[in-house]
Structures are given as structure tokens and as C-alpha cells.
Amino acid sequence: YGGRAVRLMVLSVLTAVLCEAAGSFIFKAQASVSDLSAVATGLMTSLCMPASAPYYLPCIASAFAVIVAKLPFGNARSHMFTPAAAGIAFVTICMPDKVFSYPAILSSGTTAVSGGQGFFPGTSIAYMLSQKNSVGTGLLNYVDVLVGAVSGPMGATCSIALFGALLFLAVRRPKNFTVSVSFLAVCFIYALLFPRVLTGRFVSAFMEICGGMLLFSSVFFLTDDKLLPKSFYARICYGAAAGLMCMIMRSV
């Protein structure tokens, strides 16, 4: 995506940190900038954006995440929602045309702003599913999806990297992994039972798992330590319920 992706991430992180510092000063709360939670929020928010997003879009999302979804509930150890997910939801509702306007993958590695001169729109996997179109059944088609050679959120298209993050959770944070794997298992089974493309159930399930922000969310949003249930079976139910709700909403 070129340098534009880096600038989007930097602006998003700076916005989150500044809002955290300003909010802590105004509300006389203990600042939690030093724990890097604001940095993580800004980074996750920007990674869910298209590389062609206008610069103000991740800034608005990060500001909402910190000011509305985090600060009113205290600090990074007491929030009721995953702030980055709340920020993404806010801009998705307010400006869906900007959030879902993904650029085509160009060999030049550069990306223009959505709707601007030099912008070439791409087709995301999520959009293909909504239109009942398949990525195909060839091996190279699967490879393109796994390595991120498809249009989509700039941090959520490289599926092989996200599967690597899942492996890290399995080894280092098994409690978090429990939620992720139960979420993905329900999503996969649902996709097999109710395929949205005609080239096969497995192809449909593969596209569902790798499309949109589903895999990214299973790694970074659902595994928030402050929101995880305490017991093993509660975490299984938590992830499974989230997966079922996600797939039902996708199918509507």
C-alpha cells in the first residue's frame, strides 16, 4: 500500500494518544498513556481501514474509541467494550462508503485516496460473498487470499499472518486462544452448512473466514483480557455465541 498506509497508522495512533492524555487531564483521571493501550487502540483502528481511507477517518474512529468507549469507564483495565471495535463500528455506521471503499492491489505499491484521482477500486472478499461470487477453486486463488493479494482492510487481508498470530495465542495465551478457536469453529461450521457461493462449501467457508475483519477480530478484538469470562466453558460459550451472531448478521 505504500507510505500512505504508514501515515494512516501514525495519525490514528497520535489521535488516540492525544485523546487519552487530554481526557485524563479533563476528567482528573490517572493517565494510562504509558501502558500503550492508546497506541494499541489507534493501531488496531487504522488496520481495519482501507489504505485509501481519507486521513480523517481513522482519526475520528480513534477519537471515538478513546473518548466514548474507554474514558467514561475509567482506564484500560476497566472498560466495558473493546475501544477499537467501538471506533470502527462508529465510522462504519456514519461513513460506510469510506470504510468499505477498498483499493485494488497495484504492482506499484501506491494507493490514492478513495474517490480521488488515480484511485482504482478493488473487490473485497466480503463483497464477493454478498454477491455470491467465488474467488475460484485454483491453488493460486487460495494463495492470493492467504498472502493478502486481495482488496480489503489493510491489516486484515494477509490471512497467513493472522493464522500465525493465532498460533502465538495457542502457545503463549491459551485462555485467549480458547475464545478465538471457538469463534472461528462456529463461523466455519455455519459457513459449511449455509454456503453463500456455488463453487463448494469449503470454498465458501474459506472465504468467510478470510473475508472482511472476521479473522482479525478473532485475534485482536475478542481476546481482550478485560472482557474474557473466567471459566473455560464460559469462554467457549462466549466465543461460540459471538461467532453465531457474526454469521447470522453476515447472512441477513
UniProtKB/TrEMBL annotation:
Keywords: Flavoprotein, FMN, Membrane, Phosphoprotein, Translocase, Transmembrane, Transmembrane helix, Transport
Any GO BP annotation: transmembrane transport
Pfam family, one: NQR2_RnfD_RnfE
Transmembrane segments: 55-73, 139-171, 177-195, 202-220
GO cellular component: plasma membrane
PANTHER family named in the record: ELECTRON TRANSPORT COMPLEX PROTEIN RNFD, ION-TRANSLOCATING OXIDOREDUCTASE COMPLEX SUBUNIT D
Protein name per its UniProtKB record: Electron transport complex, RnfABCDGE type, D subunit
Organism, as annotated: human gut metagenome
